[in-house]
Amino acid sequence: MRFLVCVKQVVDTSKMEVDPNTGRLNRNNANSIINPLDLHALEAALALRDQVGGTVTVLTMGPPQAEHVLQYAVSMGADDVYLATDRAFGGADTLATSYTLAAAIRKLGSFDLIFCGQESLDSNTAQIGPEVAAMLSMPDVSGAVDISYEREGYITVRRQLSDEDEVLEMKLPALITTAESLNRPRYPSVLGIMKKDHVEIHKLTSADLDVDPSRIGLTGSPTRVKQVRPVVPPKKENLRIEGKTTDEAVDLLCTAMQKIHVI
Question: Residue ranges of the Electron transfer flavoprotein alpha/beta-subunit N-terminal domain (predicted)?
Answer without folding.
Answer: 22-213
